[in-house]
Design a protein that fits this description.
Number of strands: 0
Largest sheet: none
Number of helices: 18
Helix content: 55-70%
Oligomer: single chain
Distance between the termini: 192 Å
Radius of gyration: 55 Å
Length: about 350
């Protein structure tokens, strides 16, 4: 039996023998459909992946925020507050100074308010007085309240200041002067003239006292000379002499004691020997180099002067190297006081001098 052939009458290709021709190119195999990406594993809420994804999504989708007017408004308010704070103090000072300018009771109230507002600042007080704000009484109160010598001298140096007000200002300066605090204070050049030559005693007396205060603070070596000139001036007012001696007693040293000894020969000799401070200065500051001037005074017509000279000599000790002739001459002059009829005060001083001088 013949094998059955397909209906086409052809043999299947597999069963046909090779024909010697190249085989037809095989049809390409159909491509597999692209593999679908594995669906992302759902992230758990609150996990890091979820947060990162949300942040990335927010950065991509968040719309840009436009700057509003609020920062500018706030900045402007801050500037206004600062400006107001800076202007407050000058405005208030101006208000209080304006009240001072009104004078009278209101002027004094303005001065007190101004002083309280500036916290007692000496610099602010000086500024107000330098500007001549308010009446004399208000300015004087401010200067005294903060113990400002500089402010008081601004008032005192005004050319049109009446003598009574000048005297009051100088009195205030003497009252508040402190040798440490005011050591560097400026001394007015006219102070010497006020002390020595001013026609008004009420001005000269505090000027002398203030000159003494400045000298004690600064060590002014010329101040004692001025005071000696004032005290020894012919026909000098006794109160001015006393004021000058008060200052000279405070400024006397071993170096300038000759000024005090010289006054024992002046018209002020009675006041010198009667002045406790001067008496003490002469006796305590005496040195060998003043022996000769004191010996001359032992022959003075004034008994009190002779007694003071002898008392001072009693505080001097002649060195062993002293000239024998000088020692002999001194002994003769002092011993002459040990005669009958010598006033008791001089006799006592002479005995002390003999012992001190080792005659």
């Amino acid at each position: 039996m013949h094998a059955s052939r397909p209906p086409s009458g052809r043999q299947p290709a597999a069963s046909r023998p090779p024909s010697g021709r190249l085989a037809a190119k095989a049809a390409p195999e159909p491509k597999a459909p692209p593999a679908q990406a594995e669906p992302a594993r759902a992230a758990r809420p609150g996990s890091r992946r979820t947060a990162a994804a949300e942040d990335a999504s927010g950065q991509r989708t968040r719309p840009a925020v436009k700057a509003g007017k609020a920062p500018y408004v706030i900045g402007g308010l801050v500037v206004l507050v600062i400006a107001a704070a800076c202007a407050y103090a000058p405005v208030m000072r101006s208000i209080y100074l304006g009240r001072m300018d009104n004078g009278g009771d209101e002027g004094m109230k303005g001065a007190r308010s101004y002083y309280d507002f500036v916290g007692g600042s000496e610099a602010m007080v000086r500024d107000a007085i330098a500007g001549n704000r308010g009446p004399f009484e208000a300015q004087l109160w401010l200067a005294k309240e903060c113990a400002s010598i500089a402010a008081l001298m601004v008032i005192a140096e005004r050319r049109d200041l009446p003598a009574a007000q000048l005297a009051t200002t100088l009195d205030a300066a003497v009252a508040v002067f402190h040798p440490e605090r005011h050591k560097g204070a400026r001394e007015p050049a006219v102070l010497d003239s006020w002390a020595k030559d001013h026609a008004e005693r009420s001005v000269a007396l505090p000027a002398i006292a203030l000159k003494t205060a400045f000298a004690r603070a600064t060590g002014d070596a010329k101040a004692p000379e001025l005071l000696a000139v004032i005290a020894g001036a012919p026909a000098q007012d006794s109160l001015r002499v006393t004021a000058a001696l008060d200052g000279l007693a405070l400024l006397s040293t071993s170096e300038n004691l000759g000024l005090a000894i010289g006054l024992l020969r002046s018209n002020a000799s009675d006041q010198v020997v009667a002045h406790p401070g001067m008496h003490q200065a002469i006796v305590s500051h005496i040195r060998v180099n003043y022996v000769e001037p004191l010996l001359g005074l032992t022959s003075s017509q004034n008994g009190a002067v002779r007694a003071l000279a002898l008392e001072a000599l009693g505080n001097v000790t002649l060195p062993d190297s002293a000239d024998p002739k000088q020692r002999e001459r001194i002994g003769e002059q002092v011993s002459a006081k040990l005669a009958p009829g010598t006033p008791a005060i001089e006799m006592t001083a002479a005995l002390k001098a003999v012992q001190g001088l080792r005659l």
